Amino acid sequence: MVVRRHLPAPYQAFCKGRIVRVPKSPLIRVEGTETVIPCNVTDYDGPSEQNFDWEFSRGTGFVRIVSTWDSLFTSQQYQKRVGSGEIVLRRSSNNAVELLIRSIQPFDQGEYKCITPSTDATVQGNYDATVQVKVIADGLTVSGSKARSSKPRQLSEGDSFELRCSASTTSSEHTHLQVTWELKNGPAWQEILSLTHEGKFQPSPEYEERYLSGDVRLDTVANDIYRLSVSQALPMDEGLYRCLVSEWVKDADSSWQKIQEKNVEVASVVIQQTVLDVLIATSNMSVTERDSLDLTCNITTDRSGIFQAQVTWYFSESPDDTLSDAQVLLSVDRDSVVSDSPLISLSHVDRNSYHLLMRDVGVEDSGYYFCQAAVWVPQHNGSWHKVVEKTSSPVSVVVTALELDYQIVLNASKTPKFSDDPTELECRIMNAQNTEANLRFTVSWYYRMRLRSDAVVTDELLATMDADWTLLVGDKSRERTQNGEIIFSKQAVDTFSLRIQWTSEADRGDYYCVVSAWSWHHNNSWVKSKDVTSMSVSVFWATQDYTLTVEAVKLKPFFVAGHTFEMTCKVSSQNIKTPRYSVLITAEKPLMDQSNPHGTTRIISLNQDSVVRLEDWTDQTRVDGVVLEKVQENEFRYRMYQTQMSDAGLYRCVVTAWSPGGGGMWREAVNGLSNPIQIDFQTSGPVFNVSVHSDNPTVYQGELADLLCIVTIDGVALEPDDMSFDVSWFAVHSFVLDRAPVLLASLDRKGIVTQARRNWSSDVSLERISPMEFRLRVHGSEDQDFGNHYCIVTPWVRSATGVWQRQPEVKSKPIFISVKMDVLNALKYPLLIGIGLATIIGLLSCLIGYCSSRWCCKKEVQETRRERRRLMSMEMD
């Protein structure tokens, strides 16, 4: 037994629980129509699928109709209708069902109750809901304007037609009608245009454009008559038309509900398409260049009444081209207005014939011609509608060209014998026949490289002229043409020239020209009619390898230091046109010379224009001590005054031969190197040695580091006034000599000290403490000052003539200086600072605690007075 409780309304308002919903009352339905009453339940406990019971009442008690879970629930008076399927309870979801009455009758009018058995843990909410159903009589009538004829209506494309439908209702309720016209020309009905129950016109997407243009309309005529008007029939309008009328009523929830629907087939319409034939009267034809082309397009149609034809002529180079690819020649519209063209005319011979005439045709007019015709009919709003369009088959037209005859001769007026000589070629037109006033010639120049093998070489385009005589330069010659090295010109009407100002070996090869003839076309453009190629001309000269010989001669076989060294360089060359020479003097110093560890030094040079330049000569005291001059065209002399001991080495002449190049420039031809000339001073003078010493090579940070550079002499003893030294100190900041040395300080022989720039706080000083000792001091040593330290000494010795001679540099062995950190001194100040700060913070904490306890935390404590009584002695009891 299922307990069903219905809670009072106040309790439902404040307690959340099961809710059963049905539509608001009343539901108005038409007799004989299908009626659906939905019911759903929410906010329930238990299984997701809920059961439903339906009951019916006409004002007395409720009668059970149908249930989802109890097959014996139906009362006897509904068993037949439920068993036959006239009344069905169908489930739409787990918590919703629909009561379906297939044909509702007046005796079905009454109150319907939807009940849900409880599956909740506690009873709360409502477990049933009722809805009132009102059944009204069927008062809707729908009919066509006339009885539908078995014979369809025959219409031509573009005609207008009207269809009428009558719809009315005698319903007791306030209902609205919706009228929809539909068309069936396939398996399904297609909506055309509707007048909705809210009084709005609603076209289907397929007819929206025609509705907006006024071709398809729906309006009312007299009482209850709805007319569909189609002003311009199309093939898509063919088919069966019906009028679909639905009756709508507004439910209690203010929503519109369709209560019934009826339709009537009105007419069958057949649209006959317009037949159009388009034909060009002439078959394939051939005409001669400069003659006229005459074509006629004939059109025939079965269209009667008022219509206009539009004709357009097309030209295409291929018979398979579409209209979008074809060229429009001329057209005449439906108002007989012909488009403008100076050399093409279009005339309307009669109603069905259109004549095309092209004058002065050219070879480029060969191709396929076809015409396109369209038939237009007038519409009710004054506009025109195209009912049919067709294109004729193409007609092939071949224009035979007038034979133009001419010959091309290519001559070389200038040929090179050496590199950088000019080359000039002339391309001339000979024996021109059948030429016209509107004919012009252009030229294209080509180059072909000569190969000794049979390999195929592609011809390279040097330059070409278009029909407007605009020069277009190829990639190979673009830069040289812009620089003026290659010149293309038109010397006469029949003569073109190519000039290479300075011919190089890369220009050797075969050259030829191609002369093109251009004819003026009637469409105001030039059209190429013929190309003639000349014979090739070879540009070539025999070449031999350049040779250059350089001989160096020492003029004074014996000399001593302080004297002048002099040598000459004689040059001879072969196979070089008008050469000029540039000379460079080099010296190869001994490997022990520290001034040039790489071995070779560039001293002085003289270029091909006789401009002298000092190269790597760095001796400022002897800036004018070297001279290089040109004695003859092929002879050069080098002098070095006041030679030093450091000048010892091998001296050579490096000569470059130059030949004239393009644009007044010089081109390098070949290089040559002379034999070496040795400068060797035979002397038994002193030998200098250098060493580095330090009493304390290990220092702490901030201490002073002392290093001594000591010079000693072996052999002949010298007076201190007859010698001086250039001293330089270097450091390599690494444990091994794997980094570049850093200059610390230097002291020249005049006593001038130069310090290098430093990036840390330590400082250096350099001083001479004796004639042969030099001391380097590092003040306030830092970590960066560690590494290998050495000195380089350049001795200077005064000769018997009073001339100071520079001796070879001498380098000492390195000494390693290490810098240590003093841990005690490093920690002394941080430790003192920490102890001081800790003492201050401790005293401050004590002071704060004392003040807080003395003034901030003091409280008044009042003791409760107690009576003092002595205990009575037990003996006195």
Automatic annotation (TrEMBL):
Note the InterPro entries from the entry.
Ig-like_dom, Ig-like_dom_sf, Ig-like_fold, Ig_sub, Ig_V-set, IgSF_V-set/TM_domain
The cellular component terms of Gene Ontology attached to this UniProt record, alphabetical and capped at eight, are: membrane
Transmembrane ranges, per UniProt, are none
Location (main, coarse): membrane
Q: Where in the cell is it found?
A: Membrane
Q: Which UniProt keywords apply?
A: Disulfide bond, Immunoglobulin domain, Membrane, Repeat, Signal, Transmembrane, Transmembrane helix
Membrane topology (UniProt): Single-pass membrane protein
Entry superkingdom? Eukaryota
**One of this protein's Pfam families, by short name?**
V-set
What is the name listed in the Swiss-Prot or TrEMBL entry for this protein? Prostaglandin F2 receptor inhibitor
Q: What organism is the protein native to? A: Chrysemys picta bellii (Western painted turtle)
- Lineage, uppermost ranks: Eukaryota, Metazoa, Chordata, Craniata, Vertebrata
